[in-house]
Amino acid sequence: MTGHVLVLGGARSGKTAFAEQLAIRSGKKPAYLATAEALDAEMRDRVASHKAGRGDRFTTIEEPLALSDALMAAAKKHDVILVDCLTLWITNLLVANEDVSKAVSELGATLVQLKSAHVIMVSNEVGLGIVPDNAMARTFRDLAGSAHQRLAEICEEVHFIVAGLPMTLKGATGREPRIHEA
């Protein structure tokens, strides 16, 4: 694999499973950079389930805010870094009153200069539904959409996952892993 990859999809669409398979097939020492914060019991259960599902195939790194710094540090030891997920990272930035646009620009600059590792980023496509009824949700949707556009420009490959099926929007075709083995 060359270049970086953006994997988009809705909730429970299979995007993380697809990204994990890409990472495993692409590197010898993959890292899983998790942006989630387990702030309640339900999220703690989700995080534990994800970790158990990955087993020892990945080194897990947890970083909810300083994504660019974490990528640069992880690239020193890992040839592939899976970031899951950008929409949780954007949420974390909003809650921390950070400048999301500035952080996305910094991430873009980091990706452009990062040549020692392939980065596979997972994110929820949240702009396909109805217009949210409150200002905060609309701001989040707009920021996520802008981030996806900026990162899709930089990435060599962009995939959209629907019902467990990958659609290649940009880049290589014909070698996407199957999400569910028969």
Q: Gap between N and C termini, in Å?
A: 25 Å
* SS element count, helices: 6
Superfamily at the CATH H level? P-loop containing nucleotide triphosphate hydrolases
Known CATH architecture: 3-Layer(aba) Sandwich
Helix content: 40-55%
The largest beta-sheet arranges its strands as 3-2-4-5-1-6-7
Low-confidence stretches: 176-182
Query: What is the beta-strand fraction?
Result: 15-25%
Q: Helix and strand succession?
A: EHEHEHEHHEHEE
Pfam family, one: CobU
EC number: 2.7.1.156, 2.7.7.62
Pathway: Cofactor biosynthesis; adenosylcobalamin biosynthesis; adenosylcobalamin from cob(II)yrinate a,c-diamide: step 6/7; Cofactor biosynthesis; adenosylcobalamin biosynthesis; adenosylcobalamin from cob(II)yrinate a,c-diamide: step 5/7
Catalytic activity: adenosylcob(III)inamide phosphate + GTP + H(+) = adenosylcob(III)inamide-GDP + diphosphate; adenosylcob(III)inamide + GTP = adenosylcob(III)inamide phosphate + GDP + H(+); adenosylcob(III)inamide + ATP = adenosylcob(III)inamide phosphate + ADP + H(+)
